[in-house]
Amino acid sequence: MAKAKEKKGFNPFGFVREVRQEGRKVTWTTWNETLVTSIMVFIMVAIAATFFFLIDLGFSELIKFIFSFGDGA
């Protein structure tokens, strides 16, 4: 029968050391990359908002047209 894994105690100093080691591995984007990405996100949001506005407007007009048949009876 295999032995169960031993549970290690929590070492706050070791934790801080490991966090600092992992923090050194992080690569941050440059300001230019951040700016270009942000502009692209805003453009895509504007395109999506326009698309859904036009779809909503189209469905609204279609429903009004369908309901107009019941008005003049």
Quick summary:
The protein is built from two helices and no strands. By secondary structure, the chain is an all-alpha fold.
Structure description:
With 73 residues, the protein is mainly alpha-helical. It has a domain at 31-68. Helix content is 71%, strand content 0%. The chain is built from two helices and no strands. The longest helix has 38 residues, at 31-68. The chain is elongated and about 80 Å long. The protein starts with 11 loop residues before the first helix and ends in a 5-residue tail after the last helix.
Defining traits:
73 residues; mainly alpha; 2 helices; elongated
Overall pLDDT, averaged? 89
Oligomer: single chain
Bin the helical content.
Answer: over 70%
Low-confidence stretches: none
**How much of the residues is beta strand, in percent?**
under 5%
Could you give a short account of the major beta sheet?
none
Number of DSSP strand runs: 0
| N-end to C-end Cα span | 84 Å
Individual helix count: 2
Order of helices and strands: HH
Radius of gyration: 29 Å
Which overall shape is indicated by the principal axes computed on the Cα atoms?
A: elongated
Structural class: mainly alpha
Question: Any chance you could write out the topology, listing elements then pairs?
Answer:
Blueprint: H1 12-25, H2 31-68
